[in-house]
Amino acid sequence: MDTIFSEVVKSVIAYYPVEVKNIYLLSFKGKKAVWSIETDIGELIIKKVPFDEDHITFMVHAIDYLRDNGIYTPSVIKAHSGEGFVKVDGEYFVVFEAVHGRSPEYEYENELLMILKGMAAFHQASKGIESPTGKFPSFLLTEWKSDLKRRYERLVQLKEQRLQATDHNEFDRQFLLHVDTFLQQCQTSISMLNDPTFDQWVEETKVTKSLCHQDYAAGNLAIGSDGNLYVYDMDSLTVDLPIRDMRKILNKVMKKETAWDLERMIKMMKAYQEVHPLTKEQYHILAADILFPHLFYGQVTKYYDKREAKWTLQKHISRIKDMAATEISKEKVVQDFLTRLDEVVQNG
Q1: What CA–CA distance (Å, rounded) separates 109 from 263?
Q2: What is the DSSP string of 72-128?
Q3: Which domain holds residue 200?
Q4: Is the domain of 163 the same as that of 242?
Q5: What's the mean per-residue pLDDT of the chain?
Q6: Per the record's keyword annotation, is Membrane included, yes or no (predicted)?
């Protein structure tokens, strides 16, 4: 298999102005693969990507656009043709510069705040982007209300199915114990989005085209040897309100705690606000998104849709208990956060 992989890499690199010395397979997941290669110009990274040409063309353009606007992310090496990708045997490959560093850690406040400032800079730098193909691979901006309603309806459907079932296991019991609480959270969240601020922000973003990374988190970040924060994996870029990324990082950080932490949330939002200021009204939209039970929904559908076949039932049960506790603890924190917005939005 290594020989086959080596031949693939050599076929790809033949399209580039470099010479290969050594090849190392870093990961292989069927449609995706990553290699590190030593070349005459230093280490490079080759990624096999399962996207069509329009998607890859946009991704490469976005990386160049973000880099030009000050974001630290590995550059795309251009092939002889000048393109940012090559096609070999019906599959697409992109070659990147290699950047070494370590993932930031949420436990260290200075590194956590560095993440929020980096995210804010990313959102700021992405504004004004257009697609070279005229199409965006993802445009979640216009799908907010319909997506949240669909998720709400899915929880209702699952509740009805499990109530009718006679063979409840402990996961079912945990789900039924908490589902009404979270259906109420869904309704509160959706009703909060019926706000002129939300609709106006969506209309403005249709024009400015700001991007969300969708996984701006420690696993896709590195503090480089130069001290700068680098962001990787631009596979899932979407045109959207910045609060999608903000809500996701808040959830990632808070679910590692025993409960939502108000002071930590305020510090995180202050760091973001320093670089990419939002209005008080926009923070109310963030609060609406946080109040939707994304973590509970994700864990429930992971189990019932069998998306983690290797997980034991006990692991699923442990996770649903943890997610439910996190979701319940956030309600008062979000309310308290909104009463202290003056601390975040100094001039709002």
Answers
A1: 12
A2: --PPBPP-TTS-S-EEETTEEEEEEE---EE---TTSHHHHHHHHHHHHHHHHHHTT
A3: 109-344
A4: yes
A5: 95
A6: no
